[in-house]
Amino acid sequence: MIKVFLVEDESIIRQGIKNNIDWKSNGFQLVGEAGDGEYAYPMILKKQPDILLTDVKMPFMDGLELSRLVKKALPKCKIIVFSGYNEFDYAKEAIRIGISDYLLKPVTAASLMEALKKVAEQILEEQENSRLLERYFIDYEKYMDFPDKTDYSGVDRKLIQNFLKTGNAEECGRFIDEYFEAVGEGNYMSLLLRQYMTMDIFYCVQEFIKSLNIREEDTPAELTDLKQVTKAIEKADSTMNYLKELFTFALTVRDKSSGDRYGILIREAKDYIAENYGNSELSLNMISGFIGVSPSYFSSIFKQGTGQSFIEYLTKVRIDRACELLKCTTLRTSEIGEKTGYNDPHYFSTAFKKMVGQSPKEFRSSTNQESEEK
């Protein structure tokens, strides 16, 4: 049974979730519930659930602070948060904390069960991987211990998978450096733990490469041969260099084999911009979150695919629309600025003149004059 703990300050919602889900028949056990994070935290430490369900906004201790504490104390615990439509910033912060999923309110029993089953699959997969690795390395444990064993919770496969899907090849070196730093020098300097960690990462990357359906002969043997992995593990520096090469190759292949993937993502981004250019808060982070890639990756592929930066493209869309409104309506220039994402009339006028060569008023005047002459 997968153990679940529920935290929701609204009693009606909490009881609804508790009573409208057939926990047992779906392989879950609801081991506890609470109305706020402060009351829930000690109970969570005692129950040690596999999954935490929590609302974002709650009194005393909100869901984000609770998530930070739980992730620190129980790193393997998966977290699903509930978020209102007006809480996008909270959801983004929750993602940075390391939640597994977030659901927009109102949460239906069907959507919650779908999210729970998805996370349960991850938990079961991680448990199986751990069992396999324990069997693989069991003979070594007679001779060595992890220096910082209590601080190491295993390879974060989800983090690695997300980076493989959305990261840039140029970021591989920094990603590996930061990953090893998070593991702790006392851990990765241990030969045993390096073996454990590197083999898990190796198989994670190999699974990703296999999913790209590339030909076997196109994959360098030194990056797939276990003998090379064994050799690389001998020293910490060689381990890190090997993994950087492995990740760089995987991301390079991903980009080459993606075919029209750039085109699909760019079209999604353009459609989103076309629908939301009037929102003054529209940003690169907002769009990259919408299409499901990292901001740096989105910025890179957008520039590569369009020949323009995101800001350059957004500005052109806004100014083109402003030109249409200046030609075809009698709206004041300040109103047109607001409709095209510029709340500051002075900034709108400056941006417009920089692109068109005339101020909005001058453009409207010259357009009207041309119409009269015709």
Protein traits:
374 residues, alpha/beta, Rossmann fold, Arc Repressor Mutant, subunit A, five-stranded parallel β-sheet, 5 strands, flat
Q: Main β-sheet, in a few words?
A: 5 strands, parallel
Question: For the residues shown, what is the average pLDDT?
Answer: 80
Helix fraction?
A: 55-70%
Percent strand: 5-15%
CATH topology of the largest domain: Rossmann fold
What coarse outline follows from CA principal-axis ratios? flat
For the biggest β-sheet, the strand order reads: 2-1-3-4-5
Structural class of the secondary elements?
Answer: alpha/beta
Number of domains: 3
- Taking all Cα atoms into account, the compactness measure Rg is 26 Å
Q: What is the class of the largest domain in the CATH system?
A: Alpha Beta
Q: Can you tell me the CATH architecture of the largest domain? A: 3-Layer(aba) Sandwich
Number of strands: 5
Number of continuous helical runs: 18
Low-confidence stretches: 135-152
Instruction: Write down the secondary-structure element order.
Output: EHEHEHEHEHHHHHHHHHHHHHH
Q: Which superfamily, in CATH terms, is the homologous superfamily of the largest domain?
A: Response regulator
Kindly report how far apart the N and C termini lie: 78 Å
Write a brief caption for the model.
The protein is of the alpha/beta class and 374 residues long. The chain has helices at 11-19, 37-47, 63-73, 88-97, 109-137, 157-166, 172-183, 185-188, 191-211, 226-232, 236-257, 261-276, 284-291, 295-306, 310-328, 333-339, 345-356, 360-373; strands spanning 2-7, 28-34, 51-55, 78-83, 101-104.
